Amino acid sequence: MKKTITLMGAIVAVGMFATAASAATLDDVKARGNLSCGVSTGLPGFSAPDDKNNWAGLDVDTCRAVAAAVLGDANKVKFVPLTAKERWTALQSGEIDMLSRNSTWTHSRDLTLGANFTGVNYYDGQGFMVSSKLGVKSAKELDGATFCIQAGTTTELNLSDFAREHGFKYTVVTVDTSDQSVQAFEAGRCDSLTSDQSQLYGLRSKMSNPASAVVLPDVISKEPLGPVVRKGDEQWFAIVKWVLYAQVNAEEMGITSKNAKEMRGSDNPAIKRVLGSDGTFGASMGLTEDWAYNAITQVGNYGEMFERNVGMNTPLQIARGLNDLWSRGGLQYAPPIR
Amino acid sequence: MAEVEKNILKPSKPSPWNDPAVRSMVFQAVALIAVVYFFYIIFQNTLHNMETRGITTGFAFLDKSAGFGILMSLIEYDESHTYGRTFLVGLLNTLLVTFLGVILATSVGFIIGVARLSSNWIISRLAAVYIETLRNIPLLLQIFFWYFAVLQVLPGPRNSLEWQETFFLSNRGFYAPAPVFEEGSGVVVGAFILAIVLIIAIARWAHKRQEATGQQFHTVYVSLGILIGLPTIVFFLSGMPIGIEYPELKGFNFKGGTNIIPELMALLWALSFYTAAFIAEIVRAGILAVSHGQTEAAHALGLRNSPTLKLVVIPQALRVIIPPLTSQYLNLAKNSSLATAIGYPDLVAVFMGTTLNQTGQAVEIVAMTMAVYLAISLTISAFMNWYNKSKALVER
Fold it and tell me: Taking the domains of chain B in order of start, what are their residue ranges?
């Protein structure tokens, strides 16, 4: 019911207050004093409340970095938990300033939703989790199986593509939240839970007995996940895009949250440009010159953000892989700040 | 003199702005124009804003291929069908659960309502407990109860509860044998339809005869005989063209037979038992509204308890029962949208959920969905009004 109300509200808002909402997002955020950021309803490693009830995760840190760059304080973020179904209307209606909710960048989403993807903060792919009792070794053995799936995701489309390609018969049980999908999977309503592979590890860690399930090695799709902003606000689009680029550049140059202060006095002109001691890169986006400095000192560079939330020392134990820097064989590559 | 009188009696024609008829017309026209203009502005504003934001509008998406699977469909559906088809699939699933829910809720509600008035202390107390418990627990919790606490704890398909290797119950649903219509089965289906037509004809004839002569006819037994007998005879004569397909455990799940998914069962039970509690109270109120003198009069004429209830009390009680019953049916139809909480693929879950999200066209889809619920409710309402009229007191 709450969802319907949100949706109705969103639609009324699109209809009536759209003119107000299309004003510069940056001014709105500054006037309000906080950044309203749409996140998931609870996905370990990406956006979930931690044991102290603070939001934590890679997507959450992406929001915090923007808040640090814009407002100078990484804690000035209002997190709005959204289901996959609610996220686009929430963004379209202006309920949130940016969406950072493990959302896949696709052609249709980029062009028909009035949304702009600003970059990729995690390269993912769709995988399958099955009960270890089944003894299934590959996704190709899943003909005739029942799959639990979250509504409103690219996962639904990939699964049917995969099934058509391999001539599968399959059944889907579609639920609203990832919690519900784990619950249904654990109860045996379905044989396999399918989702982005990073999510599967996160969701498995939520199960009462994580060892009872295995994630299959098959990856059946490309899922570039990233932050999204409303179309039509070039300045805001640039800010969200370049904060992430600054974090990637920082990692490449060896700037971390610990050493950023000393690095400011560095002789390296590239480092000086990132940290704001040279040039007017902040001003051209309507920000102060220490925008990237704040983001890096308060949240960290991309690598720190990754290791803290999903890396090898977390319960998710995800290796950098595709998400490593281009210079180390990964895909994370940021245009230079100059 | 006569001239003056005539002038007094005939009212002088007032100026148009003082004429109440003209004035009310003008005000109504102004109000109508204002309302239409208001909605026009909203509509235009929405379109304009969506266009400036680059949000796609229009209904062209209905012809595009959907590309996602749906758990249950009454019509042929796979991911290559269109978004328009997903609308139909969702709509039919909503109508199915509403239709079954209305029938089940009415039957249970009438039984509990009558039981509540029973002179047997235990029966009337049990009915009271049923009513007070079920109507005071939120419906969503009841849906969760049936789904998570009752159906999800059943064993998996490989250990399902079974009866005679024909019926299977597991956490994947209820599996039963399905009829297979082979060549030549049309004759049997035809015989079945013919049987129904015959029964209606007999019932009419029996009713007329009873009105004319007072003689009663065993309509029920004869009808049952025709309904079962005629198709059976034709079935054997035509060489048994209808086979049975048994569900079989193959791979991950059962194949063949018919399957009732647990989501449908949970939703149907929760909706029906919840609404039945309200219907029971309505039935009780209706029966109590019939004056006790009617029962006494019927007894005085020599009618026993059961015919008294059937022929005297209930027909009069129905006049009180039908209007509030309509509201309960409308509630049931609208509450069926809670299906989305457990993943039953109704209109809200499929069309306003997945389809909306894949296309991003919230305004069009929500408008269509609301229009559908409005249409369903108005149809139920119209049908019940017609039924109410046919049961209303006809004064002769």
Answer: 33-57, 83-138+270-391
Chain A neighbours among B 33-52 (CB < 8 Å)? 42, 45-46, 49-50, 52
ipTM over 0.90: no
Is B117's Cβ below 8 Å from some Cβ in A? no
Q: Are strands B173-176 and B167-170 parallel, antiparallel or unpaired?
A: antiparallel
Task: Kindly report the nearest CA distance between residue A281 and chain B, in angstroms.
Answer: 27
Q: Hey, what are A105's tokens?
A: 């960048």
Angle, CA of B91, B94 and B96, to the nearest 5°: 110
Does residue B159 sit at the A interface (CB-CB below 8 Å)? Answer: no
B362:A191 CB<8 A: no
Which secondary-structure segment (H or E) carries B127?
Answer: helix B121-135
CB A95, CB A13: distance < 8 Å: yes
Pair type for strands A228-230 and B161-163: unpaired
Location of structure tokens 């009310």: B24
Torsion over CA: B48, B50, B56, B58 (sign) = negative
CA-wise closest residue to A227 among A62, A69, A94:
A62
Residues 6 or more apart from B341 whose CB is under 8 A from it? Answer: A176, B140, B143, B144
Q: Which amino acid is at B23?
A: R
Report how far apart, in Å, the C-alpha atoms of B329 and of each of A160, B334, B365 are: 37, 9, 25
CA–CA gap between residue A239 and residue A177 (Å, rounded)? 30
Beta-strand runs (E) in A102-170: 115-117, 122-124, 126-131, 146-150
Mutate to test the interface with B, among A189, A212, A233 (most CBs of B within 10 A): A189
B345 chain-A contacts, CB cut-off 8 A: 174
Q: Is B183 helix (H, G, I), strand (E, B) or coil?
A: coil
* Chain A contact probe: residue of B53, B65, B144, B337 with most A CBs at under 10 A: B53
How many beta-carbon pairs below 8 A join chains A and B? 154
pTM assigned to the model: 0.82
Both structure tokens of B345 = 């693929």
Q: Please give the structure tokens belonging to residue B386.
A: 């017609």
Residue found under tokens 């379109």: B47
The pLDDT of residue B5:
58
Fold of the B83-138+270-391 domain:
MetI-like fold (1.10.3720)
The residue among A305, A145, A284 whose CA lies nearest residue B252 is A145
pLDDT in the model for residue A15: 46
The domains located in chain A, with CATH, are 2-123+225-328 (3.40.190.10), 126-221 (3.40.190.10)
**Cβ count near B175 (within 10 Å):** 26
Task: Supply φ then ψ for residue B9, to 5 degrees.
Answer: -65, -35
- pLDDT of A10 above 80: no
| pLDDT tens by residue, A27-41 | 999 999 999 999 998
> What strand order describes the sheet that includes A146-150?
A171-175, A146-150, A192-196, A126-131, A213-215
pLDDT bin (cut points 50, 70, 90) of residue A18 is very low
Could you give the CA distance from residue A185 to residue A205 in angstroms, rounded to a whole number? 13
